[in-house]
Amino acid sequence: MVATGVQMAVGSLMVALGVWPDLGALILFLFLIPTAFWMHAFWKESEPRNRAMEQVQFYKDLALAGAALVMFAAFAALGHDIGPVITGPLFNVR
Q1: C-alpha angle 23-25-35 in degrees, rounded to nearest 5
Q2: What is the pTM of this model?
Q3: Based on CB atoms within 10 Å of each CB, which residue in 28, 48, 52, 58 is the most buried?
């Protein structure tokens, strides 16, 4: 789907370029959680091989979502202190 590709690209570029990187990390998190449950529903698979493959992808998406959430918290808490960023964080949790 085009919208999800745009969501991934925008979130990734925001983090990589440092343009509101906290928002970019949040966008990635909000993409990865539904993707894990919607695209990799391993509990619906009946064949063991397909079930195992989908389970790996499901947990991979959850791990990436956790990493995105940690990035969000780090960017929001540390702001400009985290490193070279173009704009400061949009959210402030200090």
Answers
A1: 115
A2: 0.88
A3: 28
Residue-range domain boundaries for the chain: 2-82
In the chain, what is the straight-line distance between the N-terminal and C-terminal CA atoms, in Å? Answer: 37
Residue whose tokens read 């789907």: 1
Residues comprising the chain, all counted: 94
pLDDT per residue, tens digit, the chain (94 aa), is 678 889 999 999 999 999 999 999 999 999 999 999 999 999 999 999 999 999 999 999 999 999 999 999 999 898 778 878 888 888 887 6
Any residues with CB less than 8 A from the CB of 82 and at least 6 apart, and which? 74, 75
Task: Please answer whether residues 68 and 80 qualify as being in contact, where contact means their C-beta atoms are separated by less than 8 angstroms.
Answer: no
